[in-house]
Amino acid sequence: MRTVALYRYAIPVETGVVLRHRRLKQREGLIIRLGENGREGWGEIAPLPEFSQESLAEAESQAKACLKAWRAGDPCQFDTLFPSVAFGLSFAFAELQGELGEEGNYRVAPLCYGDPDALYHKLNQIEGEKVAKMKVGLYEANRDGLLADMFLSALPDLMLRLDANRAWSLEKASQFARQISPENRHRIQFIEEPCHTPALSRQFAQTHQLAIAWDESTREPDFCLQPEPNLRGIVIKPTLVGDFAKCVALIQQAHQFGLTVVISSSIESSLGLTQLARFAKQYTPHSTPGLDTLGLMTAQLLRSWQGSSLPLIGLDSDALQAVEID
Ligand SMILES: [Mg+2]
Fold it and tell me: How far is ligand 1, taken at its centre, from the CA of residue 17, in Å?
């Protein structure tokens, strides 16, 4: 017999979390539970405001229809679903069928800011690649460049991932690049989406011989992954991309091209984040994932992130409400 359950959650976030143009007060989403033959599978459906095309209400009505159909014995067609719904349902199926590994990759890339000594200590505690990250494009491009170069010069085994979120014009990006000493360039693992468009980012990478990675581009309707001279990686955010098999296919294609793949968060609760950590361990074991967003929340949901001391919301909490499916 098949059983299904659906819950709605709302978790307060830390003050000051801004998504593009909107200040986020709480993170809202859905939790689903599938049961069959004594096994369970859980999943999270949480469209990210300002990033997902679908609203939570739209995702909820689609999820309800899928859950009802599955309970009645019908299969699920993920390619017709919103990405967030496809993600949540397919990961619940993966758990149910034992296809999602148990062990997680909980490594995080520390953020570069302030004092290189503090970063040095954090990096020394990391096993595996000594990679840190830095958001760029929010302030002066020259300043971003000086700071990145300072960290690279101070820490000789540091690899740096930069994320510009398409903030720079070609001129601004060049101002940044001119501050990076030639001997430090190869330790910029990549810059995610440096310029306003992929074409400008390519031109920038070519001119300055800096590595780039696609993030926003991977979600564009006509996106087709291809090897390119300065392309070193892609960032995959499953809530925005879609189902388990689709993400695996994208990872495998990227690996064929020799690209680094970073499994990344869309600010899911600890339930979704721990599943992403397990997915990352399974399919991108050598790459540090981008999942350190739990710190934006004031609580964890149902499952605990390794090492986190945030309180855990259980099924009996008011923050989680059962939703009628029929
Ligand atoms: Mg990015």
Answer: 16
Q: What is the pLDDT of residues 64-110, one digit of tens each?
A: 999 999 999 998 899 999 999 999 999 999 999 999 999 999 998 88
Closest CA to 50 of 165, 199, 198: 165
Contact, 87 vs 243, CB < 8 A? yes
Measured in angstroms, how far is the CA atom of residue 163 from the centroid of ligand 1?
5
Residue with tokens 């992929």: 198
Q: How far is the CA of 277 from the centre of ligand 1 (A)?
A: 18
Q: How far apart are CA 260 and CA 148, in angstroms?
A: 21
**Other C-beta atoms lying within 10 Å of the C-beta of residue 38:** 5
For residue 144, the CA-to-ligand 1 centroid distance in Å is 16
The pLDDT of residue 64: 97
| HEC readout, the chain | CEEEEEEEEEEEECCCCEECCEECCEEEEEEEEEEECCEEEEEEECCCCCCCCCCHHHHHHHHHHHHHHHHCCCCCCHHHCCHHHHHHHHHHHHHHCCCCCCCCCCCCCCECCCCHHHHHHHHHCCCCCCEEEEECCCCCHHHHHHHHHHHHHHCCCCEEEEECCCCECHHHHHHHHHCCCHHHHHHEEEEECCECCHHHHHHHHHHHCCCEEECHHHHCCCCCCCCCCCEEEEEECHHHHCCHHHHHHHHHHHHHCCCEEEEECCCCCHHHHHHHHHHHHHHCCCCCCECCCHHHECCEECCCCCCCCCCEECCCCCCEEECCCC
Tell me how far the alpha carbon of residue 318 lies from the centroid of ligand 1, in angstroms.
Answer: 34
Catalytic residues: 135, 237
- pTM of this structure: 0.94
Predicted pLDDT of residue 183:
96
Strands 26-36 and 2-12: what pairing? antiparallel
Overall average pLDDT of the 185-214 stretch: 97
